[in-house]
């Protein structure tokens, strides 16, 4: 730690504009539907009729009711996926491609409507929601194309008249479990990869943000995906996961969520020899060296840090700034943070919306109080915003001791932690200190330093001097406790395919 006095604390109250847009919100809430399950080609309520309320995080109001699946519904979804797989796996890659491309186009045509649903249920600004929907369509297109190129190979044999072939077959019905922070993005990667490979799928979508996933599924249905290929359920996460993972029909598990839950599901899947992709928690370091473009780094990383109110698995969180530019970086970072407009995501002036649920507000309060009790310096933010909704001020803390909880547990919210470092070795040691290893960022003008930091940091993804993560064509996944497998690139498609070796001798 530097021995200098803390930077001046800047109040944020006068800089945060909270606009509720009540008339617009009420009008759009009228368009928010009750959500049903989709099983075997039918939209329907759960067998028991049980439902859950869906609340708007900007106001706390109940917007609609969500149908919940019971055991009978879950069993029917698995049986439906078995029938769907028998049909879809025999459909040619070219026909699957055409259907998926139609689904992508329908999603684009419906982007404005789907984005409004997402903002109402999740809180993110409307522009971010629309961007997520359009990126989802791009993801479908990319996997549709890639599915046509899931090539096998011929292996030269050691004997004459022997042919050795490797063919790739779809692994089987898939169970996918997704969180609420990116209701389209987290599903579409699993859904598009599975369908491109020839698999059927049961999606357990998030109960807090159910309408946009339902709209995504509906685009595939309207595009002509046969009944049983895509199934959508909501309900008790523990009940659904324990049933589907153990079900003999399900051959592949894909989960995005916390490390704690991911380990539990991976343990269950291992007992049943199910293939798994696990995209778990992160705690991304950002290393800013003395030779970095400090102004660009600060501006870019503020936008990334507070995107989706920091509720992003690859969100930059632990900022490690070399001593020569530390004070300059902090001043610029705080300045840009103060300019954020916090408010209802339906208001076009808002650049950060509410947190997704009251639990996140409580978590931010607890982590902030703990950091301050460890003598961290609060530069701005640090408290909830009064009024209805789950609003929290964008928060910047500096010189945060390593034993503060926020330096160990992923904040998953609008909180940036900034500490100085002296040497390259110091930065690497801190970057690799935690068991999280999903994403990392670095800023430097030195090609040598960039190469060295890319090699030294233990993360599944490293982005240097820009934001370069999350495209459909690039790998997306972590190491250590951040999981294994990829949700992007050709690696993602391979997880849904089984290589089969066929060796054939010539007939006499």
Describe the structure.
With 508 residues, this protein is of the alpha/beta class. The protein has 2 domains: 13-21 and 282-471, Aldehyde Dehydrogenase, Chain A, domain 2, CATH 3.40.309.10; 31-280 and 483-501, Aldehyde Dehydrogenase, Chain A, domain 1. The chain is 38% helix and 19% strand. The chain has 15 helices and 20 strands. The chain has a 7-stranded mixed sheet, with helices on both faces. A 6-stranded mixed sheet has the order 9-8-7-10-11-19, with helices on both faces. A 3-stranded antiparallel sheet has the order 5-6-20, with no helix packed on it. β12 (284-288), α10 and β13 form a beta-alpha-beta unit. α3 (93-109) packs antiparallel against α5 (126-147) and α5 packs parallel to α6 (185-197). The protein is globular and about 75 Å long. The chain starts with 21 loop residues before the first helix and ends with a strand. The relative contact order is 0.15. Residues 1-29 have low confidence and may be disordered.
Secondary-structure map:
Elements: H1 22-29, E1 37-39, E2 42-44, E3 51-55, E4 62-67, H2 71-88, H3 93-109, H4 111-122, H5 126-147, E5 153-155, E6 162-170, E7 174-177, H6 185-197, E8 201-204, H7 211-223, E9 230-233, H8 237-246, E10 252-256, H9 259-271, E11 275-279, E12 284-288, H10 294-305, E13 316-322, H11 326-338, H12 358-373, E14 377-380, E15 395-398, E16 415-421, H13 424-431, E17 439-443, H14 447-456, E18 461-464, E19 483-484, H15 489-494, E20 497-505
Parallel strand pairs: 7-8, 7-10, 8-9, 10-11, 12-13, 12-17, 13-16, 15-16, 17-18
Antiparallel strand pairs: 1-2, 3-4, 5-6, 6-20, 11-19, 14-15
């Amino acid at each position: 730690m530097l021995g200098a006095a803390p930077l001046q604390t800047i109040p944020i109250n006068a800089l945060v504009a909270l606009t509720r847009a009540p008339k617009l919100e009420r009008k759009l809430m009228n368009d928010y539907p009750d959500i049903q399950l989709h099983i075997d080609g039918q939209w329907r309520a759960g067998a028991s009729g049980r439902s859950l309320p869906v609340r708007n995080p900007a106001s706390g109001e109940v917007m609609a009711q969500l149908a919940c699946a019971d055991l009978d519904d879950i069993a029917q979804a698995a049986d439906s996926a078995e029938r769907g797989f028998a049909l879809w796996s025999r459909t040619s890659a070219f026909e699957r491609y055409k259907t998926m491309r139609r689904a992508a186009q329908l999603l684009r045509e419906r982007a404005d409507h789907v984005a409004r649903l997402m903002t109402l249920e999740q809180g993110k600004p409307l522009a971010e929601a629309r961007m997520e929907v359009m990126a989802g369509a791009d993801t479908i297109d990319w996997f549709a194309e890639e599915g046509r190129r899931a090539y096998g190979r011929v292996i030269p044999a050691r004997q004459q008249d022997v042919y050795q072939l490797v063919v790739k077959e779809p692994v089987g019905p898939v169970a996918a479990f997704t969180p609420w922070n990116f209701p389209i993005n987290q599903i579409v990667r699993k859904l598009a990869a599975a369908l491109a490979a020839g698999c059927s799928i049961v999606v357990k979508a998030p109960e807090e943000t159910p309408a946009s996933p339902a709209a995504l599924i509906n685009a595939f249905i309207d595009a002509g995906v046969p009944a049983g290929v895509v199934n959508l359920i909501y309900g008790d996460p523990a009940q659904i996961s324990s049933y589907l993972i153990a079900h003999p029909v399900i051959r592949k598990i894909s989960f995005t969520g916390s490390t704690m839950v991911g380990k539990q599901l991976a343990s269950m899947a291992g007992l049943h020899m199910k293939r798994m992709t696990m995209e778990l928690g992160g705690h991304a370091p950002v290393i800013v060296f003395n030779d970095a473009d400090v102004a660009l780094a600060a501006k870019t990383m503020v936008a990334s840090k507070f995107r989706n109110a920091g509720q992003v698995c690859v969100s930059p969180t632990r900022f490690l700034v070399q001593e020569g530019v530390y004070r300059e970086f902090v001043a610029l970072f705080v300045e840009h943070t103060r300019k954020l407009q916090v408010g209802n995501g339906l208001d076009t002036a808002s650049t950060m919306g509410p947190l997704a649920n009251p639990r996140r507000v409580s978590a931010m309060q607890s982590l902030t109080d703990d950091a301050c009790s460890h003598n961290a310096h609060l530069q701005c933010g640090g408290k909830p915003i009064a009024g209805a909704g789950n609003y929290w001020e964008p928060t910047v803390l500096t010189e945060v001791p390593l034993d503060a909880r926020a330096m160990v547990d992923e904040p998953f919210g609008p909180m940036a932690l900034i500490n100085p470092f002296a040497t390259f070795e110091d930065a690497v040691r801190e970057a690799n200190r935690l068991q999280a290893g999903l994403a990392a960022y670095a800023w430097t003008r030195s090609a040598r330093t960039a190469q060295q930091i890319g090699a030294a940091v233990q993360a599944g993804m490293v982005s240097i001097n820009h934001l370069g993560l999350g495209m459909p064509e690039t790998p997306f996944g972590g190491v250590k406790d951040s999981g294994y497998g990829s949700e992007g690139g050709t690696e993602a498609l391979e997880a849904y395919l089984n290589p089969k070796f066929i060796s054939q001798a010539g007939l006499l």
